[in-house]
User: What shape does this take?
Amino acid sequence: MAGVSITTVSRVINKFPTVKDKNRQKVLEVIKKLKYNPSPVAQRLATGKTNVIALVMPRYEGIFYSFYALELIKSIGNMCGVLKLDLLLRLTDSYVPLDLRGIGGFIFADIIGNRTQLLQALEEKVPTVVINNNVQDLEVNCVAIDNQGGAREATKYLIGLGHKRIAHIAGDLVTQAAALRLEGYKQALKENNLTINESYIKNTDYSRGKARTVAGEIFNLDPAPTAIFVSSDTMALEVMAVALEMGKQIPRDLSIVGFDDNPTSLYGPVALTTVRQPLIKMGEDSVKRLSVLISGKENTVEKIILPAELVIRESCARVPGG
Assistant: This one.
């Protein structure tokens, strides 16, 4: 209809500067008249490239109530919009092979029992980034958080307030994050010549129910801890609830520190001191990194560790006389 070649139409649509103004105007007028929109599917078939990235998240109960999961989905989705990438969310079971068809790249939200899926993507040379897990033994790009450093600073803060009997409620140690937070807690105790009391360390599955159970166990110890570092804010708030039910006052009788900086930590009975992890930045940086890999401009491997930040609020106090 414009009286020009297919090549000229393609160049106008893709904004090549070499098209004559007269021909450009003809094509634009016909596009407007026909209300034409290019087909992304057809473009992918023609170029052999795709701008679809898959976010692979291990499936678990309550995922869409999880602050961690929602922050990642939101940040990754927003950055995909900025970079004109399409996002496909895959909630996966560890034993299900990945369908690689039509996928330009993968973002793995942690590796929990699904390492074979990661290996599959790497073997097929699909651009891949892992977040929330610093995978050291594979040549794969990672964006993770300094969980050990954040936990160490939280525990050091309690020590600085004069606490010597400090308990730790760990998350699910199958996750790298929980394991590193436990290690950071132990590291701070060792650096300050405090004994690691194994009875003060309780492992959980990150659930509020399990946190409630182990909190009761900790409060019944003799001597009981004067402070607790908890591996997530959700669990820390449950520990706080149990303490209040038992007649304890926070922070007078017990100091509590969480990990996440979940907005709910502001609105508990006492504003929770916590460790802020930059989930939004982790999600955004993973998309940026994957976009570079998909473009083919770079094929180097980067291991990015983002710092965590201690946020001091009202749930901790100095030990009397400490």
User: Anything to note?
Assistant: Residues 279-295 form the longest helix (17 residues). The first strand starts at residue 52 and ends at 58. The chain has a mean pLDDT of 92.
